[in-house]
Design goal:
A hairpin with a 4-residue loop joins β14 and β15. The protein is about 30% helix and about 30% strand. The protein is built from ten helices and 18 strands. Strands 1, 2, 8, 9, 10, 11, 17 and 18 form an eight-stranded mixed sheet that branches. An eight-stranded mixed sheet has the order 5-6-4-13-14-15-12-16. It is α/β, with parallel strands linked by helices and about 375 residues long. α1 runs parallel beside α6 and α1 packs parallel to α10. The structure holds flavin-adenine dinucleotide (FAD). The site of flavin-adenine dinucleotide (FAD) has 42 residues, from α1, β2, α2, α7 and β12.
Length: about 375
């Protein structure tokens, strides 16, 4: 494709960069992956790994649905350590108002071919006996599943390497150049195209981007096999996930294949803690307390279990809650694959397909315009 050392340099070895690198390599493009820290670190290590179809907008639905189909196609090939678990989601309705949301979601999903099941109070209690009594019901989405994201990222990178990609790990890109990228040690990697897949760090290399860091906390428990059967999410989660300004906490819990329970989650802007890379960096006890209290409200027996560890990570949030996938407005040799907020594990595979369809100049399986960076007016730029 070019006379440079590589056709494409993918910057970032999180799940999005890893998936993009693999998709490029599968197209026989020569690929370099540059990862500053470790493959599958960053938000990918901090996230929950819920592969979930969402209905916040038609565009969000299209990308999550498309990606879920791609995950399903890959399912048999995923190694054991990716811990794929087809546990499904239950969206839990606390009261009649939230039950209306259950019916709205049921209609939305059913009309678009996603299998869902409305649960009344009794059916909810049978499906998930650990939930407190007196909840109004819920919506089961059996096609949703769970993975362990860092191992999925490593799996994608290993496959890309097997197809000829070269991994530069522990090497940070300092800047994009006309010829490719310059690393912090001063060395250059020449490439026809560069993909900025650095998640919430994306503005360090492309400063005009409308991407803000949105902090999240998670807590993991000791092993309690069989304690829960589904990923459970309160319907109030949607209200909190939508807020673009205030801090919020909502009940979201995931049974891991190990028997551990992953308890979330929080969303915060304007935090002064900008580390986010270490295992327990930036943990705020007040947020963890609120999160656990909310979880115990829904699952009272959680109060008797042992929590092992809490950590934080940063989602890369855009103003319209959709990722940026495609050429940078001001540098057509740089493609963006960032801004996935709380859905980048799910949408990594769809993102990689849409990105490579654009690079190869061919039609995509779903309309790409909602994700093109060109939709963002320059004046909406906000730095992290
Ligand atoms: C608490 C929490 C819960 C979540 N739960 C879910 C969930 O259940 N389901 C879901 O779908 N999503 C979830 N997400 C979102 C998901 O984790 C992210 O959207 C996804 O991991 C983003 O992947 P990424 O590859 O874009 O970014 P990252 O994983 O952050 O990777 C970016 C990589 O770029 C590297 N990098 C940065 N700068 C440079 C540079 N200059 N040079 C070289 N390398 C660089 C970093 O070291 C990092 O490895 C959650 C997120 C959080 C925080």
């Amino acid at each position: 494709m070019s006379s440079k050392a590589f056709d494409v340099v993918v910057i970032g070895g999180g799940i999005v960069g890893a998936a993009c690198a693999l998709e490029c390599a599968a197209e026989k493009l020569s690929v370099a992956i540059v990862e500053a820290r470790m493959v599958g670190g960053g938000a990918t290590a901090a996230g929950m790994g819920h592969l979930v179809v969402m209905d916040d907008s038609e565009a969000q639905f299209a990308l999550t649905r498309y990606s879920q189909v791609l995950w399903n196609e890959l399912r048999e090939e995923l190694p054991q350590e990716v811990e794929h678990d087809a546990c499904g989601t239950i969206w839990v309705a606390a009261d009649d108002a939230e039950m209306q949301e259950v019916f709205r979601k049921q209609k939305f999903y059913s009309e678009r071919g996603v299998v869902v099941e409305v649960l009344d109070e009794q059916a909810l209690a049978e499906a998930e006996p650990s939930l407190r009594r007196g909840l109004a019901g819920g919506l089961r989405v059996p096609g949703d599943s769970v993975i362990y994201p860092p191992c999925a990222a490593q799996f994608f990178v290993d496959r890309a390497i097997a197809r000829g990609a070269k991994l530069f790990v522990g090497q940070a890109v300092e800047t994009l150049t006309r010829e490719g990228v310059r690393l912090r040690d001063g060395s250059l990697i020449s490439a026809g195209l560069v993909v900025n897949a650095t998640g919430s760090w994306a503005t360090e290399l492309t400063p005009r981007l409308s991407v803000k860091k949105r902090k999240g906390h998670l807590v993991i428990t000791d092993r309690y096999p069989g304690f829960l059967r589904h990923q459970l999410v309160e319907l109030g989660y949607l209200k909190s996930a939508h807020s673009l300004t205030s801090d919020s906490v909502a009940f979201n819990i995931q049974p891991r294949k190990t028997g551990q329970l992953l308890i979330g989650s929080s969303r915060q802007y304007e935090t002064t803690d900008a580390s986010g890379a270490g295992a327990s960096s930036g943990v705020e006890p007040s947020i963890v307390t609120r999160m656990l209290a909310r979880a115990v409200e829904y699952v009272p027996a959680l109060a008797k279990l042992s929590a092992l560890r809490a950590w934080t990570g940063f989602r890369a949030a855009t103003p319209d809650k959709l990722p940026l996938i495609g050429p940078d407005n001001e540098n057509d040799r740089c493609y963006l694959a960032t801004g996935h907020e709380g859905l980048g594990i799910t949408t990594s595979l769809g993102t990689a397909k849409l990105l490579v369809d654009q690079i190869m100049n061919r039609p995509a399986a779903i309309p790409i315009s909602p994700y093109l960076p060109s939709r963002m007016a320059p004046e909406t730029t906000a730095r992290a």
